[in-house]
């Protein structure tokens, strides 16, 4: 398949996990990708591994100035921007009563405010190309759980509705915006959490792979999904169906 021939994507958190898998998928189907990540060493390594159609930009997703510069560099490098994948985020597992304001603010900034800044920065370029954006939310942006901390859940719920807001605000500009809601995926964001425990509470009795979510993002970012906007897609091994 070559669904992304002549398409340019910008992916945050693109150096690992779901972001990297999405970059690999889009490049494998003919696209060009800018990987934006805070981790310079890993980002440059991934870009080198994936070849000449991938470019790395160091990005602090909480900085409006860096977002503007990243979009400008994407257009300078590859000529345009067709696809924005707002994928960067961090997790927390501390309960509300033990969460510091500093910890709350950091998680909200990286996981929620970053999506707002990305959409804002990319708007004019996406309008030119009639492009689209995909937001990585979470199943915990839909249902509640004590497994995840309050800031992470609040942020993931917020970006679900932010994506719908942007979809409706920009529908007449020809820009589509959707969100994906992964369950437990075997990525670095899980940290030291007991992966077998997470697999045991998932109906399919396993963790998802980054590639499972990358496939979903690639579909939504492609022209095959031209009639889909303001929608949410869950890939959680049946967790939220319980």
Automatic annotation (TrEMBL):
NAD among keywords: yes
GO terms, biological process: steroid metabolic process
Pfam families in alphabetical order: adh_short_C2 (PF13561)
Organism, as annotated: Gulosibacter chungangensis
Keywords assigned by UniProt, alphabetized: Lipid metabolism, NAD, Oxidoreductase, Steroid metabolism
Organism placement in taxonomy: Bacteria, Bacillati, Actinomycetota, Actinomycetes, Micrococcales
Protein family according to the UniProt entry: Belongs to the short-chain dehydrogenases/reductases (SDR) family.
A GO molecular-function descriptor: oxidoreductase activity
Identification of the protein by name: SDR family oxidoreductase
Domain Ketoreductase, first and last residues per copy: 7-178
UniProt keyword GTP-binding, yes or no: no
């Amino acid at each position: 398949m070559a669904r992304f021939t002549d398409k340019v994507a910008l992916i945050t958190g693109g150096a690992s996990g779901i972001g990297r898998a999405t970059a690999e998928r889009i490049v494998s189907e003919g696209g060009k990708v800018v990987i934006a990540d805070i981790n310079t060493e890993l980002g440059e390594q991934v870009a080198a591994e994936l070849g000449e159609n991938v470019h790395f930009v160091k990005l602090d997703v909480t900085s409006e100035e860096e977002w503007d510069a990243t979009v400008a560099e994407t257009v300078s490098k590859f000529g345009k921007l067709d696809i924005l994948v707002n994928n960067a985020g961090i997790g927390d597992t501390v309960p509300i009563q033990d969460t510091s304001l500093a910890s709350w603010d950091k998680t909200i900034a990286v996981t929620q405010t970053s999506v707002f800044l990305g959409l804002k920065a990319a708007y004019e370029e996406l309008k030119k190309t009639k492009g689209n954006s995909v937001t990585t939310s979470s199943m915990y942006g839909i249902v509640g759980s004590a497994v995840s901390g309050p800031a992470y859940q609040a942020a993931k719920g917020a970006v679900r509705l932010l994506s719908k807001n942007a979809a409706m605000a920009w529908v007449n500009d020809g820009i589509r915006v959707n969100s994906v809601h992964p369950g437990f995926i075997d990525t670095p964001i899980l940290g030291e959490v007991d992966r077998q425990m997470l697999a045991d509470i998932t109906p399919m009795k396993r963790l998802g792979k980054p590639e499972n979510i990358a496939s979903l993002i690639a579909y939504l970012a492609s022209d095959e999904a031209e009639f889909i906007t303001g929608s949410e897609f869950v890939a959680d091994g049946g967790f939220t169906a319980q």
